[in-house]
Each structure stands twice: as C-alpha cells, then as structure tokens.
Design brief:
310 residues; mainly beta; 16-stranded antiparallel beta barrel; 17 strands
Length: 310
C-alpha cells in the first residue's frame, strides 16, 4: 500500500474507521521541448506539465463480499502551478460499491471507450497522444457505470450511462442521455477489446473503437481502429504502435496514426526512447509530428522529460 505523510495528515482529520484504507498516489510528468507550430507561427522552447496529478483512493469493507470504494483525483500543472485559473482540476472522481457481482460507481471519470485504449497509446499525455486525431477520449460528468468481475481467465466488460443532466454542456450536447460500453480480454501476452459510444459527445453521434495489443518477447505491438459518425460525416482512423525493450532499463518506441475523425487526413507520428532509472522514475525523449491535408497543422515537437509515479 502506498502511504505518505500526506496520507497520515488526511487520516488525522477523520476517525480512523473512516480512513482505514487510504492510498495517496499520483505522478509528476514534466518535459522541456522545442515546439514548432505552423498555425500559431510559434517556434519556442517551453516547459510542459503532462497531466501531472495527485489523488486519494480507498474504501471500507461492509462485509466479506461488499466494499465501499472512492477516488478523488486532481490534475495540477508542475510548470506554472495552475490548471487554467485553478491550482487543481478534477480528473477521475467517484463513489461506489465493489463486490463479487461487479463494481458500480458514479461521478466524473473516463468512459469505458477511453479506458479501452489500454496500453496501445505509447505517447499518452504527450504531444503524440491519440487525442490529436481521434475522438472518444472523454472524461464524462454525471456518469454511472457498472463493471463486471473478471471471468473466463481475462474477460471483463463495462457499461456507463451519461445522464441527461449534461444537456447543452461539453462533452454532452443534446437532449438525450449517452451510453458508453466496452468488452475485452486481457492477459500479459495479449489484449483485445471493442468499445462504443452512443450520444456521449453529442446527440446523434456514434463511435466504435477496436483495440489490440500483443507482447512477444521484448516487443509490444499495438493497434487501434476507430469509426465516428455524427449523422453528417462518417469518418475512420487507425493507429499502430511498437515498443522494444532493449534491456531492463532502456526501451525504444514508435507510433503512427492516420485519421479523418478530428481533421481531414490528420496524421501523427512519434518516436522516442525511455530510460527507467527506478521502478517509479523514468527519463524519456520524443520527436512528434502532427499534420493534416489542409495544412492548418504542420507541427513538430522535440523534447526530453521525466515521469515520476508515487
């Protein structure tokens, strides 16, 4: 169990029974990069905080087969100390019940479709993140979700209901509720999953995502394909990724995606090298390009950074 002085400080504010299972966790991820962005005519050196966060999670047993669980996770910007106009911005936050029949949670958190990307996006939270060319990367408000227990050696599924309460707000625009669902099989050797969103981003929008990962020796290969239909446009996209564990410390990785989902003929390509200093701390470098057919984007990012998880 991950503990820190912060955990004990939090615990001291409440009765011990109420905080019997408190885990403090998070990560600081900061990189310094050269950004050359055509649309804004910017070419500069910049320090970037890549979704750095801190959170509390835990629960309390009701009986031998049922437990109350919770999570409060907040993002902060290590580079300038703010998240927009706030020091902290909400990430995944929920309260729920976990038992032998599965897990129910309600709050503000990643949809099953977003979670279904698993480990395929090797440049997650960096400039090469799949959000550059794909939709479906939604952290929804006012969402209720059920997740099955793992069965059959690695099968599991989730279904989430995004309430009408989000009507007229991002990402829910429209009068109807949204539904997000996923189902897949996960093992150390391979992962395969399928996910769908209906009316999650907006009314009359449908999204289908297929994801696969294969581990062979020192190599990991990933594939993600997506179809997005909003009633006006019906667009597709695909992404492939590969990681090579050169040693127990060094890894090389590459990723390429092409999609019309967010912009016409959008492309993103990234290469990078990671050096694992400790189990929690990693140094990394990357080169990423993002462009599209209309050339409203023709951007290049070169950077080095450090990721520390706690």
């Amino acid at each position: 169990m991950k503990k820190s002085l912060l955990a004990f400080a939090v615990a001291s504010l409440f009765p011990m029974a109420a905080v019997a299972d408190v885990i403090v966790y998070g990560k600081a991820n900061v990189s310094i990069q050269h950004a050359d962005e055509q649309a804004t005519d910017v070419s500069q050196i910049e320090l970037v905080s890549n979704a750095s966060r801190i959170g509390l999670k835990g629960g309390e047993d009701i009986n031998s087969s049922l437990k109350v669980i919770y999570q409060f996770e907040y993002q902060t910007e290590v580079d300038d100390g703010t998240n927009g106009t706030q020091t902290f911005g909400q990430r995944n936050i929920y309260l729920g019940l976990q038992g032998t029949a599965g897990t129910f949670i309600g709050g503000h958190f990643d949809t099953p479709t977003k979670v279904a990307q698993e480990k395929v996006d090797l440049f997650n939270d960096l400039e090469g993140d799949i959000t550059q060319i794909f939709k479906g990367e939604i952290r929804a408000s006012n969402i209720v979700q059920y997740t099955t227990p793992t069965f059959g050696g690695g099968f599991a599924g989730s279904v989430a209901y995004v309430t009408e309460e989000n009507n007229g707000t991002t990402p829910r625009i429209g009068d109807s509720a949204g539904v997000s669902a996923s189902f897949g099989y996960n093992s150390p050797v391979f992962y395969v999953g399928v996910a769908m969103d209906q009316d999650v981003e907006a009314e009359d929008t449908d999204l289908v995502r297929l994801v696969g990962r294969l581990n062979v020796g020192a190599f990991q290969f990933g594939l993600l394909a997506e179809n997005y239909d909003n009633g006006v446009a019906d667009e597709d996209g695909a992404l492939v990724s590969a990681l090579w564990n050169l040693t127990d410390k060094w890894a090389a990785k590459a990723q390429y995606g092409q999609s019309d989902v967010k912009m016409a003929d959008g492309e993103t390509a990234s290469i990078g090298v990671d050096y694992k200093m400790t189990k929690a701390a990693t140094l990394y470098s990357y080169l990423t390009t993002v462009e599209n057919e209309a050339e409203t984007r023709d951007d290049t990012y070169v950077g080095v950074g450090m990721d520390f998880k706690f």
